[in-house]
Amino acid sequence: MMKKVFFVMTAFAVCVVSANAGTIAYWRFEEGPAGAPVSHGGQGDGVFYPGTADSSGNGYDLSVWAEGWAGYAYNADVASRTFGGATNNFSVKNTGGWPAMFTDTAAGINGIQPAAFTIEATFKLENGGYRTIVGRDSRGAATINGDLAALYFQAMPDNALAIKFADVSGFWHEAISDTQVFESFDFPTNPDGVGVPWYSMAAVSDGSTLSLYLREVDADSAWQLIAETDMTLSESPDTALTMGTGDGGDWNAGDWSVGRGLYAGGHGDRAYGFLDEIRISDSALAVEEFLVPEPATMLLLGLGSVLAMRRRR
Fold this sequence. Notes:
The protein is mainly beta. It has strands at residues 7-11, 23-27, 62-64, 72-75, 82-83, 86-87, 91-94, 101-103, 117-125, 131-136, 151-155, 161-166, 172-176, 199-205, 209-216, 224-230, 247-248, 251-252, 256-258, 261-263, 266-268, 273-281, 297-301. Strands 2, 4, 7, 9, 14, 15, 16 and 22 form an eight-stranded antiparallel sheet that branches. A seven-stranded antiparallel sheet has the order 3-8-19-10-11-12-13, with no helix packed on it. A two-stranded antiparallel ribbon has the order 1-23.
């Protein structure tokens, strides 16, 4: 259960939003069947193969790194049987110790530098340290630390959650929650996460404010604002998300990753566990536009203070 106690109640209208309204990419993992690996089409390790369809219609499919040791399999354990009015049959869970999914380097999504954006994902994660659910490959784009990638949408040690990114001016922005805001599972004793809640998380940048929201789906809880940063305090001349810089043997600047991050040019910070319903939008969505529909009330977590820019490591 989320361990927050101070709330302010606000009402808003409920609406179901089309997946194409400002959506850049939307990965639903509905290919199935349960137990089958996400296909890599017989390709060699790290070769792009469009095994996971982009439901936005933009054609920005995802590839696993490899089947088995660096792949995922479809799973019938899902947070909700419907998302945005569409049936939700499957999630994906890693099948080995090196899970990774990534976008095609030649795809248009790898070149976007949106002035505003929203990233959403639904997850049930193993215990761990840094666990990147969605990342963006880069090295050298952030002046605060050249080893940082362009973006991390992640869980952190002690089960904090965060959105962190470099902007096109080289400034680093973070919104990081308190610790223990979600529950994770211990793989050796509970490998399928039985009894552990599913969560949905959304990060929103409108160019001035960076916000992070969390919702416990199993409890049908309302969205909580768990972190917020005033980016104008950085005095950056342009807070648009950068596509990044650099190039590695197994990554290119601007590539989007799912289930892993990048640090110092190396793959890491892997998010072991279940992932589902991942959407990237090029606009700052309102809470009522997030993928998981809400009742007629939303709970906004009372923050003691706005989080200033903090270093990742």
